[in-house]
Amino acid sequence: MNLVMVGLFSFNTIGLEGAILQSLSHGFVASALFVVIGIVYERHHTRMVKYYGGLVHTMPLYTFVFLFFTMSNIGLPGTGNFVGEFLILAGSFKTNSTATFISATSMIIGGCYSLWLFNRISYGNLKIQYLRNFIDLNQREIVIFLPLISGTIAIGLYPEIFLNSMHMSINMLVEIIRISKL
């Protein structure tokens, strides 16, 4: 969400549209990641990462969903976060290239952490001494994830649906900001 602030303070159309699109996409991805964590908590009653490992062997569908939303959180092309992050960085580069460089560096560090967390939980040796209830996604959880996956992909593949509806308002806002600076 720090990147959204960079887009808002770029004070140009591209950055503001990217910030709004990123906020919308973040709603889908963050919700899904909270559900992902809630699923393993519900089964194992712990949030300690050191107790997890090798879930891909017993929960392959869960691991796929976790990978999809982890990669979406990082900004995989074809997902909403990619479009939002790209627009934010393009808009902020027009205003301040140093802030853009720092923002891009923080995105890389956050992506490294996300991949480390996914790798730690999903791969490695199965830790059966800590975990006992290895049940993959049930029908209720699949129904929860389908609209989240669909929304994330829809924003990534068809961002103009959202951008066209906000373009006029953002242009008017940028014009008001420009006039007030004079």
Contiguous helical run count: 8
Percentage of residues in strands: under 5%
Domains counted in the coordinates: how many? 1
- CA-atom Rg in angstroms: 19 Å
Mean of pLDDT: 92
Q: Helical proportion?
A: over 70%
Secondary-structure blueprint of this entry?
Blueprint lengths: L1 H7 L4 H32 L10 H4 L1 H15 L5 H16 L1 H26 L16 H19 L2 H22 L1
Helix pairs in contact: 1-2, 1-5, 2-4, 2-5, 2-7, 2-8, 4-6, 5-6, 5-7
Short description:
This protein is mostly helical and 182 residues long. Helices cover 77% and strands 0% of the residues. The protein has one domain.
List keywords for this structure.
182 residues, 8 helices, 77% helix, mainly alpha
Q: How would you describe what is shown here?
A:
- With 182 residues, this protein is an all-alpha fold.
- It has one domain (2-176).
- It is 77% helix and 0% strand.
- It has helices at 2-8, 13-44, 55-58, 60-74, 80-95, 97-122, 139-157, 160-181.
- Helix 5 packs antiparallel against helix 6 (97-122).
- The radius of gyration is 19 Å and the shape is elongated.
- The mean pLDDT is 92.
